[in-house]
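Late entry, phosphoenolpyruvate complex.
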Amino acid sequence: MLTNVELETFSINGVVLQKPIIIAGPCSAETEEQVMETARPLADMGIKVFRAGIWKPRTRPSAFEGVGSRGLKWLQRVKRETGMLVATEVANVKHVYEVLKYGIDIIWIGARTTANPFAVQDIADSLKGVNVPVMVKNPINPDVNLWIGAIERINNAGIRQIAAIHRGFSSYDKTLFRNVPQWQVPIELRRLIPEIPIITDPSHICGNRELLFEISQKAMDLNFDGLMIETHYNPEKALSDANQQVTPDGLKQMINRLIFRKPDVNQELMLTLAELRDQIDKIDDHLINLLEERMVVSERIGEHKKKNNITILQTKRWDDMLRNRLRFGTSKGLSEEFIIKLFRAIHQESINHQTKVMNE
Ligand code: PEP
Ligand code: MN
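Prediction complete; structure with ligand written out below:
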């Protein structure tokens, strides 16, 4: 993995990985039997990287927090008996020392840890002079700079094999997903640091088995570099994240359904794409012009309100407006969620313009 996405293959500890890199294994290592029974069929189907959480960052302290260091021996056994590379999460310096002692091949930094620069810096400092690939999950909040900051801290420690893991972002609103994918964030990461491979973790995005295929296919269509999918020999009995884990056989069936499209589409397709993108660009320009016109009208309303000494926000008007836009928008095939978000943003911008006028 790591460092150069132009290369279609990566090598770690003598194991050659090809794009798309599939990382599979349980959310948590629970027992030696569970680890081995999950690992064997994965190795048989050609999976090259095995994951298992040893220390689990749980939201509430009553949940299963992982087996701790004794599970590292089970990962060593997986490596010895199947030849797969083994990967686990580290959240502090003690974890780093333990995984290095047991020869774990790849480590990852979890979403909650990435959100904390002090914790990431401590981990980075403990990795100085060590040659171990590190995967950095996105922080729980959709902040691409915080994600890049964590990657930079690891890079500054001298680690040369770094990948990013996209695992979605938490949200207060109830959504279809456990963690909203917000694809624009990993796309922006790719734009800003194109040399870092991106692995999507559909398990933590979806929170359930049913949506895994859709998210995995989307990641492949965006030309991301791999997938990390939680796999358990008996998912219903899993001690953590039971709803989102699949059996090794379920994983195999899902991977077989995935379509891997080529990033280098042929000339004719390129032209069709370019043409359609051109149309999109024109429509977006048009949208911006319309928004500008709308703000000019808003400012005139602001002047009127200022002259007559009335408040900017007229709740009744805003309620009526949103209801009408929702009716019209949904009749045009746009989702309710989108219309609400769009008009909230437009309305906020109008208020900002009016406030400026009123304070002049
Ligand atoms: C995990 O991979 O099991 C995990 C805890 O993930 P995240 O940090 O994305 O929540
Ligand atoms: Mn998990």
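The chain has 13 helices and ten strands. Will revisit in the morning.
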